[in-house]
Amino acid sequence: MDRLDRQLLALLQTDASRAHADLAKLVNLSPSQVSRRVARLEADGYIRATVALLSEAALGLQVEAYVAVAMASYAPDVVRGFHARISALEEVLDCRATTGDSDYLLRIVARDLASYSRLMNEQLLGHGDVASVRSSVVLDRIKHTTSLPLPPASG
Fold this sequence. Notes:
Arc Repressor Mutant, subunit A; about 20% strand
């Protein structure tokens, strides 16, 4: 990845809706060169997808929580069942297997505390596979970004 690729990725991370002609002006290339570079960055796996980032507030999603989950069993069928259940919940935005006191860390959004409580009690707990959960409800976002740090340019 050279300096121009890095510049293009940085620009696309902040606004992927920019036309290639606009990007070309910003990085001092022709629109066709930008198109070829963006296509190569997609083919090489640097760009996974181009999506719209929606507003939680506009959608009425007032509660964000991080939930640490400790499993009651590590039997393969139990873990697969947990993974399938969690993957089907649209309120679970992220589920990561972790080290430490818990096995998974979930990022959850919900309309309000009542719907968050229902999700926890009906969908997360009560299936016999979860030993314990520790929830932290977000009070305020200090920093939130979807932009990844980019490696230094080579060449």
